[in-house]
Specification:
Radius of gyration: 18 Å
Helix content: over 70%
Strand content: under 5%
CATH architecture: Orthogonal Bundle
Largest sheet: none
Order of helices and strands: HHHHHHHH
Shape: globular
Number of helices: 8
Number of strands: 0
Number of domains: 1
CATH topology: Rna Polymerase Sigma Factor, Chain: A
Distance between the termini: 56 Å
């Protein structure tokens, strides 16, 4: 069966090489996923802990590759499913620590830089980012996570469905509703 025939993903041969212990294959899989995994982790746990989430995700992927089966969701769906569980574990641990008097704050938004823009443009962008973050926080946890996977991480509906344990059609419908709600909230925030 060719790579293209397995769910439309070209990951088949690369995953099989990684499963066989090919370090170059793992390096390529990691390099492809890293920017999106890190962006997702920054949104879910903050920039301080994002690297730990990505590292733990890849460690679990390496340890569990023998159990991976390539489906239409592909390797990314499986990988982001692992990252999602690690983020949930992170938040649970932070809540336990907060109850015991440890670190109480869990940061969940990244820090964008205004590199390459004028001061005026930077201020406008900063205002827009603040407004979008404020409105984004008004979405439900599920809506935020879905949009983070689809928009920030750039996953397909199939990959997102696998990560969330849903059907691709349900992901597309939920995305449409979440974006419509976000649009309404943004328009109401401007008034």
């Amino acid at each position: 069966m060719s790579d293209e025939m397995v769910g439309g993903h070209a990951d088949g041969a690369l995953v099989e090489a990684a499963r066989a212990g090919d370090h170059d294959a793992w390096h390529e899989l990691y390099g492809r996923a890293y920017p999106r995994l890190r962006a997702y982790a920054v949104r879910r746990v903050g920039p301080v802990d994002a690297e730990d989430v990505v590292s733990e995700t890849m460690a679990r992927a390496v340890a569990g590759i023998d159990g991976f089966r390539l489906t239409s969701a592909g390797f990314d769906g499986w990988l982001f499913g692992i990252a999602r569980r690690i983020c949930v574990d992170h938040h649970r641990a932070a809540e336990r620590a907060a109850r015991r008097g440890g670190r109480a704050a869990v940061v969940t938004s990244g820090d964008e830089s205004g590199a390459g823009v004028s001061v005026d443009e930077g201020l406008l962008l900063a205002d827009e980012h603040v407004q979008i973050r404020r409105v984004f926080q008004q979405l439900t946890d599920g809506e935020r996570e879905l949009l983070e996977l689809r928009v920030i991480a750039g996953l397909s509906a199939d990959d997102t469905a696998m990560a969330l344990g849903k059907r691709p059609g349900a992901v597309r419908t939920a995305q449409s509703r979440a974006l419509a709600r976000l649009r309404v909230l943004l328009e109401g925030d401007d008034a």
